[in-house]
Design goal:
The chain is an alpha+beta fold. Helix 1 packs across helix 5, helix 5 (173-183) packs across helix 6 and helix 9 packs antiparallel against helix 10 (285-298). The radius of gyration is 26 Å and the shape is globular. The chain has 17 helices and 18 strands. It starts with a strand and ends with a strand. 37% of the residues lie in helices and 20% in strands.
Length: 551
């Protein structure tokens, strides 16, 4: 066994993140990882010719564990939270390379300090020449006698293709990677039934899991397919009958034209001209994705209140065409890397357009892990306005979302009113029935029926999960810890919904039982002002379910 100290990344300071880090290290290494006293410690390599120090400082967290060398190799490849590892025992070297200093060639041993994230994407996955280039980067410090400390390496998987397209509510890659590490093993079968832009699937593929995805949004499916199944990406032939002068629709066109008149600008003609220029140069769905990304970054929607459909727009100065062609050039340099990694693993199997509440769109396999972040409760998120930001691209593609009105079964509707937490939120939403919806956009007229529909959809999704989950498998949901409802007039809190109680209640009804929960506090420093009290403290919660024993 090798005694080791792992340094967590600088931004791992919240209790929930540290708990996930400990769980991840323990799961990968098979050890009992503990948080280490980080005050006043320095660590030095065994080899006297090479010195590597870490100067501890406030905010740094350390994890202590003991593991066999093969487990440390695995940790090196997979970890989400670790920045560096120091090994305190004299052991057989795990990695080594040669370095010529002057006329003398020395062997450099990477036993006492590893830089984690980059190795997760190079070890045994891409060409030797690229690995050698990576080693050259890693050993630069040792060629400079003035620098005796190994620098932190800040690379992450974002540069691969997680940032292919701006996407609301996207998983943090590090976060979902840790959950996959904790709750599954290599070769396991995983599905994300609300896969969005494919973050879960990409991380699962890189961790050698067989992965599937479902989503109701055509753009989400296209993004995920490009990341994981590039051979299925369709070629497109630009249509000649598109009226680009009317491509934005009447409401958005009028908003932009009013801004042009007020500010003496020409944004409308610039935007429609750029859309036509880019579209005429599109050869594949990949180009359409980048067009959509450029458009979403050019036109920023700011929704006023929640659920009333009203919004304003902000227009960014940078031209769409400039952003599009720059990003296309950048991503083309990386695309061979990410597609090489994913194809080498050959683990992405199935991404389909459909509704996760419909069992017919699910593959027939049984899953070791179902991991997802379902849509947030419509009564507090305003998510029903989401598709307006996709309207232009759907118009170009002649495609619509599968998110159609669903009929709620009378039995489920009645049962929801008998469940404690569901009944509480529905009672709150119906408490101003007959009131003026303009004075409170979050209540009965706009929110009661969408919430009933959402809860019924979640029940059907959870039932499908119980059917498709292996007996020893896990369903992992990441949801808002609570939903807080404010008065749109006074911004005072009127009602607080506990998400753990809500989803546990729905899951129990569907044949699942809660096994554990982990609270994760999120930084909202970038929160906007369009939502009342948008900068209030915010946390998500990880809920882990298994098939009920009495099922």
């Amino acid at each position: 066994m090798i005694n080791a100290i792992a340094v967590l990344r600088d931004n791992i300071v919240e209790d929930g993140d540290i708990q996930l880090a400990l769980l991840e290290v323990s799961r990968i290494t098979g050890s009992n990882a503990i948080l280490f006293d980080k005050n006043n410690h320095q660590y030095q390599t065994i080899d006297g010719d090479i010195l590597a120090l870490v100067n501890t400082r406030p905010g740094k967290a350390f994890v202590s564990f003991a593991a066999e060398s093969d487990k440390i190799k695995s940790l090196l490849e997979k970890s989400s939270f670790l920045q560096e590892i120091f090994l305190s025992d004299s052991i057989d070297y795990i990695y080594k390379t040669s370095l010529r200093i002057g006329f003398e060639e020395k062997e450099i041993y990477f036993t006492n300090l590893f830089l984690i994230e980059f190795f997760a994407f190079i070890h045994n996955k891409i060409e030797v020449s690229t690995i050698e280039e990576a080693f050259e980067i890693l050993i630069q410090t040792y060629t400079d006698t003035k620098k005796r400390k190994f620098r932190n390496f800040k690379k992450s998987s974002l540069y691969l293709s997680h940032d292919l397209h701006v996407y609301k509510g996207k998983f943090f890659p590090r976060f979902v990677r840790s959950l996959i590490n904790i709750y599954s093993n290599e070769g396991d079968i995983i599905i994300d039934p609300f896969c969005g832009s494919g973050t879960t699937m990409l991380e699962a593929a890189l961790l050698n899991r067989i992965c599937y995805g479902i989503d109701i949004d055509p753009m989400a499916v296209m993004i995920s397919q490009y990341k994981l199944l590039p051979k299925l990406v369709k070629q497109v032939s630009p249509k000649s009958d598109i009226d680009f002068g009317n491509i934005l629709g009447d409401e958005l066109t009028n908003k932009i034209l009013r801004k042009d008149v007020k500010n003496n600008t020409q944004y409308f003609s610039e935007i429609t001209g750029d859309i036509e220029l880019i579209y005429r140069n599109c050869n594949s769905i990949y180009d359409i994705i980048l067009l959509s990304d450029a458009l979403n970054k050019k036109i920023k929607y700011r929704y006023i209140g929640i659920g009333n459909g009203r919004y304003t727009v902000e227009l960014q100065k940078r031209k769409m065409s400039e952003r599009y062609f720059a990003k296309k050039k950048e991503l083309e340099l990386n695309s061979t890397v990410i597609h090489g990694l994913v194809n080498d693993q050959n683990t992405a199997r199935f991404i389909t357009l459909g509704d996760a509440s419909d069992i017919k769109v699910w593959p027939s396999e049984k899953f070791d892990l179902i991991i997802t972040s379902p849509p947030y409760l419509p009564a507090s998120s305003g998510r029903e306005t989401y598709y307006s930001t996709r309207a232009v691209i759907y118009n170009i593609l002649d495609q619509n979302s599968c998110d159609t009105d669903r009929e709620v079964e009378p039995l489920i509707r009645a049962d929801l009113l008998r469940m404690n937490t569901s009944a509480e939120i529905l009672a709150y939403l119906s408490s101003n029935k007959g009131g003026n919806p303009q004075k409170d956009a979050m209540r009965f007229e706009r929110k009661y029926e969408p919430t009933i529909t959402y809860l019924a959809m979640m029940i059907n999704f959870l039932k499908n999960s119980a059917i498709r989950l292996k007996r020893d498998g896990r369903l992992v949901l990441v949801v808002a810890k609570q939903h807080i409802f404010y008065s749109s007039q006074t911004q005072k809190i009127e009602f607080v919904l506990d998400s753990e109680k809500l989803y546990t209640e729905l899951a129990a009804y569907s044949g699942l039982e809660l096994k554990e929960s982990i609270s994760i506090k999120l930084d909202k420093s970038q929160a906007g002002i369009d939502k009342p009290r948008g900068k209030d403290e915010y946390s998500e919660i990880v809920l882990v379910f298994a098939v009920s024993e009495i099922r």
